[in-house]
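Query form — protein Bifunctional protein FolD

QUESTION: What is the three-dimensional structure of this chain?
INPUT:
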Amino acid sequence: MSAQLMSGTALARQIVERCALRAQALFEEHGVRPALATVLVGDDPASVTYVTMKRNRSAKAGIDSRLVRLPAETTTAELVAAVRALSDDPGVHGILLQHPVPAHIDERAAFEAIAPAKDVDGVTMHSFAAMAFGEPGFASCTPGGIIRLLDAHGVELSGRQAVVVGRSPILGKPMGMLLLARDATVTYCHSRTVDLASHLAAADIVVAAVGRPEFIKGHDLKPGAVVVDAGYNPGNVGDVDFAGAMERAALVTPVPGGVGPMTIAVLLEQTVDAAERVLFNL
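ANSWER: The structure tokens for Bifunctional protein FolD are given below.
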């Protein structure tokens, strides 16, 4: 068996193109340009690269991109104040706090300073609760992008056994909630799960989000499984043994070029959504 690749590049491009049309319509008809403010603390090279990429994609989507850059020694209180100022700014429709932040900062406190109506990255407790209860709100961008990718490839979720390997509050946990909302039977696993292989062997759908290179071995996968690798490690290596998965699974996302483009596309789409909700009182 040789798996089919689930590339997110083409689908993400389509989403961004639609965002550009919607953003242009908002500007031409109402004089409103959707605006995304990105907060970057410190100068971590990977974070700087990600922010630059997101700003470039924002420009392609007709979204005004604002960068708030803070020094690495910024305190939690200073970061919270900066985020709250953006939450209070009517010219800003979406807020993205680039993570991870420096270790001395309380990241959760900073996330919670984002107004729910501007949480286009889906990182607040309000957004998580909305996902869990099926209420209106913004999805965590990576899980939301994964669902869009699965839909685009015709992957049936209802009644399927899904294993999410990872439990972070902005990826693993919301991923499980979105799968559950689509009637999948969800099992959460993680780096300390005993006999992970037995869970993987029963999984129709595997989402890898544990942050360890090639943590999931191809030979442990159920033949014909759908494998989504949401990990990214140095050297363009995901959380899944890619070569092994290609031999055993039916569908596999590449790293890079799979989940990553979808994350950014959903972020931009939700920024346009946020602008429309303010303009039309939705």
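ADDITIONAL NOTE: The chain has two domains: 31-115, 141-259.
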